[in-house]
Design brief:
mainly beta, five-stranded antiparallel sheet, 47% strand
Length: 736
Amino acid sequence: MNQHMRTTRHRLTTAIAVALALTAGAVATAAPAAFAAPAAAGQEAEQAVAPFPLRATVAGVGPTGFLSGQSGPQITWRWTRFADGAETVLPAGSYRAAHQTDIVAQNADGVFTLRDMGRGGEPLVIDTNPLGAGYTIAGYAGTRLVMKKARATGGTELHIVGTSQGALTDDTVTGLPDDAVIASVAVDSPGTAVVRYATTVDGVTHQRVAVVDVAAHAVVEQYELPEAGAGSLSLSATHIAWVEKPASTAPATVVVTRRGTGETVRHDLGVTTTVAIELIGDWVTYRSTGNPSPNDQPNALYALYARSLTTGETVKLLEHAQGSVDGPDGTQVARGGTLEHGEGLYRIAPGADGARPVVTLVASTGESTSLQLVKQDVPEAIDLDTTPAPVPLSWTLNRVGATVKVELVHTATGKRTTVPAHFNGGTVYAAEWNGMLGDALTAHNGDYTWKMTATALSGIGPAVTASGAFKVTRKPTSHDFDDNGTADLLIRNGAGELFVHDGYTGRYGPTWQEKDPVRIGTGWNTYDQLVAPGNVAGSSYADIVARDKTGVLWLHQGAGRTLAPRVRVGGGWQIYDRITGGSDVDGDGRPDLLAADKTGVLWLYKGTGGTTNPFSARVKIGGGWGVYNTLVAPGNLGGAAAGDLVARDKAGALWLYLAKGDGTFAARTLINSNWGPFTPVAVGDADRDGHPDLVGQGSGGGVYLAKGTGDWRKPFGALDGVAFLGAASTWPNIVF
C-alpha cells in the first residue's frame, strides 16, 4: 500500500471560501514541536494546552500547530504552536490550510504563497497565471495545488499544479470521465484528494466519488453514490463512508464500505438532522450541522458522537462542536467543549485495538462549556424607604443564553415569591424585585434568603445555583400590623375574628388585598370599641386599644405580625360612647387618646409611651361634642406640629379640628357634606406621600380612600373605591 494511503482520511463537505482581511502581528520565533501523540485508550494525554482565540474557528491542523480565524471588525488569522502556545498573526489576506501539514496558503489573483509554519524559511510562491484562464483552486495538497478547469466541450478537468526545480508543473488527473461535472473536491492530506462528481452513462446520470492519488495524479478508486446523492463523506485508510438522507424528515444513515472489498454496512444514527461524519479508526463520528459561527453559544443539538463500526456502541465525545478539520495521524480536530475541560480545540484519536476514540484538549479558550456564576450583586440590607421598589438584584454569568429565576423567602413566615430575571447586557441577568411576596402582599421586614437558578438554553450542563441572604427594613408606620411598612385595614367580623387586610400599592394606587387576609385573633366580639391609635406603648409596632362591654380598657401591643397578650389599662370607660386615637394632639411625639362621653364632653388622654400605663389622667377639652356620631384622629393634616381631629355629624358632614399643640383645637372647618353613607377610618399614610389619608367604609362592604392633600383648607381628595372586603369576613363587620 502507498505511504499516503496509511494516513489519508477525509470528511467531505461543502467549502465556502471567504476573503478575510487581517491585522499584521509579530511572528513567534521559538522552535516548532511535533503534534502530540495520541493518548492510551480511554485516557487523556498529559500535555501543555495552547491558547485558542475567542470567537474563532479552526481552519487547519498540522503536526506542530493549527490555523484559526478570529471574528471581529476584520478577521484575524493566527498560527498557534502546540508546544508552547506561541502565536503568529498572519499578514492581511485570505488563508486556507493544507490539511495534515503545517502549510498555510494565500491566494492573490492566481499567485499562491505557501508558508511552512512548522519549519519556517522562505515561502513557496506558485504563479498559476502562465497556465491561462479557467483554473480555479479546489484545495491544497502539501506544496501542490489541486485545481479545476472547465473543458471547452463540457465537463471539468482536475489538475495537480506545482513546481519542480523552480519550473511550473501542471498534471491532469486521469481516470475521470470527460463529462464529469465536479460537485466538490476535498484534499485531506498531501497525498490524497476526494472528488464527488456526476457523469452520464447511457442517458442516466450517476453520482460518484473518486479517490485521487495526488503524486500519481490519477484516480485510484471509485464508488457509486445513491441516486439522490450523498451528504457528508469520509475516507480512511480502511473505509469510505457517506451519509444517506433522501428527505429532510428522513433518518440519517451512514453507509460504510471497506475499501478494496466492497463490503458495506449501514448504520442508522437515530437522528433526522443533516450530519457531518468522520472515520476515526473503527469508529465514525457524527454531529448535526447548522451551528457554523464561533459566536454561537454552545448547544446540545450539536454534540459530537461516535459510533462503533464493529459493535454499534454510541458514545458522546463533545458536548458541542462548532466545526472540525482533519488532523495528522488519522485524527479529527474539533472546535467544541466538554464539561470537564471547557471550550477549545479537541483532538479525537483512534483508541487502541478498536477502543473508544480518545478525546484530548489541545488548545483552550479558557471558557467553561457549562454555565457558571461569575459574580452576584445582591445587597445585604435593603431599606425600602430609601431604595423604593423595584429593587435591582443581578447576577453575572460566564455567558449569555440562560433562563434565570430567583426565589425569595421571608425567613420568619416562610412566605416566598419567584422573580424572573432578564438579560441586562453583557452577561448580566437582572431581577427587579417589586417588594412584594406574591401578587398582593407587600414584603415583610426582616431576614430573607434568596436562591438564584440559571439554566442554560443550550441544554448543556447542570443548572447553576447560588444563594444568600439580605434584610429588609422600613421605618414603622402608624397603621402597619404585619410589619411590612404599609397601612393595613383591621376588620372584626360578626364571629369575633380579627383580620389584617394588607395594604399595598397596586396598578392604580393604594389598595387592600381582598383575598387571604391574615387572621390574628378570635374572641374580639367581647369588645364594643376598637381603636388603632398607632404605637402608644413604645415599641416599633402599631398597637390596638379596645374597650370591653364592662367598661375595661385594654392594650393589645403590636409584635410585628401578631399581637402580644393584652394588658389592662383601666376601668370605667363605659361612660364614653366614642373613642379615637392616633393624633399627637399635644405635640410631644406620642399618639394620644380622645374620648367623648355620653353628655357630649370631649376628654384628652395624653400618651405616655408606657406599656402598663400608656395614658395619663384625662384632661377636659370642652363640651358640645354630642352632635357628632364619629370621631377619628388621622394625624397631622394641616402641616403644624400637632395631630388633628376629624368629626362626622349626624347629617353626614365631615369637620376638621386643627390642633393647636397644647391639647386644644381651633374652630372647626367644613371638609365635606357628603360623608353620610361612609364611616371615616384613619389609616395613616396609605399611599406613602407624606400626608395622612382617610378611608370611608361603605355599608355594603366597599372601602373607599380619600387621599390626604397636605392642605388644611381641603385636607382630602374625593373618595375612590379601592377594595371590597365583605367576601372575606362574616357580616356584620367593623373596619378600624
